[in-house]
Protein 1
Amino acid sequence: MLDQYLPPIPDDAVPTGERGDLVPRLVATLIDVVPSIVISIAFMVMSIIPFLGCILLPLNLLVQLGYWFFFVPYCVSKNGASIGKKMQKLRVVPLGEPAGRIGMGPAIIRQFGNLFALNLIMLAIKGEERISMSDMLAKTEVIKVDR
């Protein structure tokens, strides 16, 4: 259903054997935030209409939760990457299985791990390992792919 809207990185993309670096992962995160910002702006503009503000605020919250805790994990579990990760040629895989896919459960756990602001700081501190807090929680790794 959603595959037509995702950037085309084929399933046969070959892992390069390296984990994703800090900068491409940060850029991927920023790309993933863009739809959330657009959704919020749309709801803010619509809330100008009288009596809709009290309805749109909770609806915005539900849509945001759906985006972050259903859509993004769905993309990661089905396609191996969120939109941003696909654009940065990165893939989320089970720890030690470069050709594997993670399920929806670990993908949601990764998203909860991403809620912590220290996630990218942990990635930067772990330097050589290039593993984030969300990777540790879900027992995953982010690897580079050739396309």
Note: The radius of gyration is 16 Å.
Protein 2
Amino acid sequence: MAYKPKADEVMAAPNIIPMADIMLVLLIIFMVVTPMIQKGASVERATVDNPKDMQDADKEDAIVIAITRDGSIFMGSQKVDQSQLTNLLKDKLSVKQGDKTVYLNSDKGALYGKVVAVVDEIRAAGVDQLGLLTEKTQKKGAPAAPSGGQ
């Protein structure tokens, strides 16, 4: 009779160490990338000494209108024409429940006349609460925190 060695028992417990390593790497990636995700168009905001904190501008359903340095207007991430802005805002506000504040995120290099024209379009849509998003002026060695002024 031939000798047949016995095979090892099947390991019933899963090895979770590689899974934990992968999860930690994913956690670190998400922690690094999340602050970089920006809602709407990328603008360099004006800096002020005493901004008013506007946490509602970060909400998912907040209406944020951005004006870039070259004068382009964005509602969220969608580029819009200035002539369409009032009608689009009216449509969006009629659907929105609760707070109907509109936030203006303007580049500090945008033309003043363009910003005033957009504010006029926002007011023509019937908006009473308008938030102007700004950055807090940096002290030496301190990072800027996004905030807003009204």
Note: The chain has a mean pLDDT of 82.
